[in-house]
Write a structure and sequence with these properties.
It is a single chain. The protein starts with 15 loop residues before the first strand and ends in a 10-residue tail after the last strand. The protein has a domain at 18-67. The protein is mainly beta and 77 residues long. Helix content is 0%, strand content 42%. The chain has strands spanning 16-23, 27-30, 36-40, 46-49, 54-57, 61-67. The strands form two sheets. A four-stranded antiparallel beta sheet has the order 1-6-3-4, with no helix packed on it. It is globular and about 35 Å long.
Length: 77
């Protein structure tokens, strides 16, 4: 990683819908366990995000995320 890079890991312990995620710069997302549903900012397209897949958010981008399978004893990563 370069000096302008950051690594963030998000664990999700509760079911949630339409969780907003905004990015000033391009953001690379990688799914480790379970699945999430990613909705584009305009709400017209959705994509199921599965383990070992990648999702790119464009600069100044925004998505909403559904975490339908999160559990207290088995978080989504």
């Amino acid at each position: 990683m370069g000096p302008e890079s950051a690594l963030s890991i998000y664990d999700t312990y509760k079911k949630a819908s339409k969780v907003g995620l905004a990015a000033d710069q391009m953001m690379y997302c990688g799914m480790i366990t379970d699945k999430k549903i990613m909705h584009d900012a305009d709400g017209k397209r959705s994509k199921i995000f599965l383990p070992h897949q990648s999702y790119i958010i464009k600069p100044k981008g925004y998505v909403e995320i559904d975490c339908t399978e999160a559990k207290t004893n088995q978080p989504l990563i």
